[in-house]
Design brief:
Number of helices: 8
Number of strands: 16
Order of helices and strands: EHEHEEHEEEHHEEHEEEHEEHEE
Shape: elongated
Mean pLDDT: 89
CATH class of the largest domain: Alpha Beta
CATH superfamily of the largest domain: Periplasmic binding protein-like II
Low-confidence stretches: 1-6, 30-40
Distance between the termini: 16 Å
CATH topology of the largest domain: D-Maltodextrin-Binding Protein, domain 2
Helix content: 10-25%
CATH architecture of the largest domain: 3-Layer(aba) Sandwich
Strand content: 25-35%
Length: 298
């Protein structure tokens, strides 16, 4: 993001302590007030859709949202909202290592009867939870930190969230890490209103195709192959209009020295797709492969 004299509001999936908040802090290091308690311009929203809608309607300048986890795959709420809303573009991507902790006030694991967290977090820890807390009911929530406030009054409950969240809420960590895969990472997008693309190593787009046309998906794939464009990801989501109709989300690796998608490729896709949405070209910062600190102040 470009530096600003006054802090720019950033929407994130709250409450405080979520991995999305950490991604927002790390993605905006040039905003000096971002890290001050109670005064930073980060604004929590209850859902991913609400974060992106706030940007699309001009209520916020930016939103940071999760898009894909290395274990559980794409975040459907993010993809669906990007397709349904207008005027959004991706400004950068940030990949963070995910280290889940079991947080609670129980003196023994056997006392825990309910475990709360976001569905993706619960799924990423399902083997550990099944082995160590077979008696507990897993209860999905809108974010990893939504139920942390209840723990002091409910010692038979626990939450799966980050160690940072436990520190923020001053709650005990009962076990960490508990994710089933040690290399667990989540990719986040920084999303703003559509404007000039910042350019970078990747381009993201989505398209729908004519229904029941043989070979319809092959045609855009041929466009990428013929021009030497590597797809780093392709994922389908239902259009929600009728059964059997899909939207395809694609991430492309831009050729070295070409920070933007070629206009010829865009024209070819426009001639094939029923609807084409370009989300922009942007840089990717992978903290899973770097030695950079995960401290928000870094």
């Amino acid at each position: 993001m470009a530096a600003s004299v006054s802090p720019v509001p950033v929407a994130f999936l709250g409450p405080a302590g979520t991995y999305t908040e950490l991604a927002a802090l790390l993605a905006c290091p040039e905003q000096p007030h971002l890290h001050s308690q109670g005064s930073h311009p980060l604004e929590p929203y209850p859902t991913i859709g609400a974060c992106l809608s706030a940007v699309a309607t001009g209520q916020q300048e930016w939103a940071v949202v999760p898009v894909e986890n290395s274990v559980e795959g794409g975040v459907s709420m993010t993809l669906d909202a990007l397709w349904q809303l207008e005027g959004l573009s991706i400004r950068q991507a940030l990949i963070l290592p995910i280290r889940h902790a079991l947080i609670g006030c129980a003196s023994r694991l056997e006392q825990i009867e309910q475990v709360y967290s976001h569905p993706q977090a619960l799924a990423q820890c399902q083997a550990w939870l099944g082995s160590h807390l077979p008696q507990a009911t897993l209860i999905p929530t809108r974010s990893t930190t939504e139920e942390l406030d209840r723990l002091r009054a409910q010692p038979n409950a626990a939450v799966v969230a980050s160690e940072r969240a436990a520190e923020l809420y001053q709650l005990p960590v009962l076990a960490c890490p508990i994710n089933d895969h040690p290399d667990n990472c989540t990719r986040f997008w920084v999303v703003g209103r559509r404007g000039s693309s910042p350019g970078g190593s990747h381009t993201s787009l989505a398209f729908s195709l004519p229904h029941n046309v043989p070979g319809a998906l092959l045609k855009p794939l041929q466009v990428f192959a013929e021009r030497g464009l590597n797809m780093s990801r392709i994922e389908s989501r239902p259009t929600k209009k009728s059964a059997g109709t899909y939207v395809f989300f694609v991430d492309l690796e831009n050729p070295v020295g070409q920070p933007y998608l070629d206009a010829e490729v865009i024209a070819a896709l426009e001639g094939i797709a029923e609807t084409l949405k370009l989300f922009g070209s942007y840089p990717v910062h992978d903290l899973c492969k770097s030695s950079e600190s995960l401290s928000p102040a870094s």
